[in-house]
Amino acid sequence: MQPLIDNARAHGQRPEQFARLAAGQSPQVLFITCSDSRVVPALITGARPGELFELRTAGNIVPPYASEHPTSEAATIEYAVEVLGVQDVVVCGHSHCGAVGALVRGDDLTGVPAVRDWLAHAAPEPRSSAADDPTVAEAVQNHVLAQLLRLRSYPCVEQRLKSGQLRLHGWYYEVHTGSVHEHRTDTDTFEAL
């Protein structure tokens, strides 16, 4: 913990670098990704403070939209789209994902009921030989596409997509190589950026 504290102290020693941020934020991208500590959106994209609006959830899950039961995730998405006017939304899954791996393997999650119930929001991934692949690449990529589909059902996203004011992107990040792949709709494959 001490190295993190030391860096936080040093970070606050450069207020001139951050003064412009007091005027507000105007990110162009909502970046939805996993809470996994190996996935660092600013590091992956090179974004500076104020350039990405982030939503991090276990397994980069976008829960179903339900206006009668708002969620933090729905509020974040709505705020990014309606208030901040982001032009792009990236859903970024990653290799070696514990959440997707648990689904693919059919892990017993009774000891972590909140995790079990949260993962119930994920699109069901059939157990398969992919469970033997520690990267769970194919399952994660399918999961990213399912979350993009779910995102399209949010009224604010649907409206902005129809008007051409918003674009959706599916990314797959390899934690073991640092490479990023994007889903190409024309070939229905994930290809290196």
From TrEMBL:
Which chemical reaction does it catalyze?
A: hydrogencarbonate + H(+) = CO2 + H2O
Q: Which cofactor does it need?
A: Zn(2+)
Q: Which Pfam families match?
A: Pro_CA
**Stored PROSITE patterns:** PROK_CO2_ANHYDRASE_1, PROK_CO2_ANHYDRASE_2
Q: Which UniProt keywords apply?
A: Lyase, Metal-binding, Zinc
* InterPro entries recorded: Carbonic_anhydrase (IPR001765), Carbonic_anhydrase_CS (IPR015892), Carbonic_anhydrase_sf (IPR036874)
Judged by the first EC level, this protein's enzyme class is lyase
UniProt-listed Enzyme Commission number(s): 4.2.1.1
Return the similarity comment: Belongs to the beta-class carbonic anhydrase family.
Described by its record, this protein's role is as follows: Catalyzes the reversible hydration of carbon dioxide to form bicarbonate. Reversible hydration of carbon dioxide.
Q: What is this protein called?
A: Carbonic anhydrase
Q: Which organism is it from?
A: Streptomyces cynarae
